[in-house]
Amino acid sequence: MSAPKETEQHGETRRDFMAILAGAFGAIGGAFAVWPMINSLNPAKDTLALSTIEVDLSQIQKGQSKTVMWQGKPVFIRHRTEEEITEAREVDVQSLTDKQSDEDRVQKPEWLVAVGVCTHLGCIPQGQKQTDNHGDYDGWFCPCHGSHYDTSGRIRKGPAPKNLAVPPYEFLNDTTIKIG
User: Fold this and answer.
1) Tens of pLDDT along 57-76?
2) Shared domain check, 81 and 158
3) What is d(CA 90, CA 102) in angstroms, rounded to the nearest whole number?
């Protein structure tokens, strides 16, 4: 009988190497086959492009509002007057349905940024134009079911259970904000 080969003593043969190599190629091939399916679950590029928008505030005068679209929803941007700021800050927070102070809803007192969708049934409240009905609190009014919002976008009267949502936003400089 001949002496065992050195590679057989350690349990490593050419067959073992080929099995490991085939397994590695199979795993890599499987990953390449599955990747398109996994990648299809990511948001589309056009959706990602809408995830953030930059808005120039320099054209909005005090007392005026602007509506922009973000993620398929209207966002109300209002350049508030001193009277609107004072009115919003003097409200007793404990008297509100959704208890939020004005300071919790704005980053700079003169700028209010809120998603323009009524929290009752998803209608678009009136109040962006000077000629619109602004409701009993000089903010926004949803004529569908009678919800009244104040100059801070807080629900003050009517069936809406929550304030107008404040989207994530940041000031890039004094005249530009990034929403999203």
Assistant:
1) 999 999 899 999 988 899 99
2) yes
3) 9
Task: Kindly state whether residues 107 and 33 are assigned to the same domain.
Answer: no
Q: Summarize pLDDT for 99-147 with one digit per residue, the tens.
A: 999 999 999 999 999 999 998 888 889 888 888 888 888 889 998 888 9
* Phi and psi based region of residue 135 (left: phi greater than 0; alpha: psi -120 to 50; beta: remaining): left
User: Residue 112 sits in a domain of what CATH number?
Assistant: 2.102.10.10
State which residues form the domain around 122: 48-179
Asked whether residue 1 is domain-assigned, the answer is no
Q: What is the DSSP string of 83-129?
A: HHHHHHHTS-GGGSSS---HHHH-SBTTEEEEE---TTTS---B-SS
CA distances, 141 to each of 64, 69, 170 (Å): 16, 19, 27
| Annotated active-site residue in 10, 79, 134, 145 | 145
Task: Please say if 145 is a catalytic residue.
Answer: yes
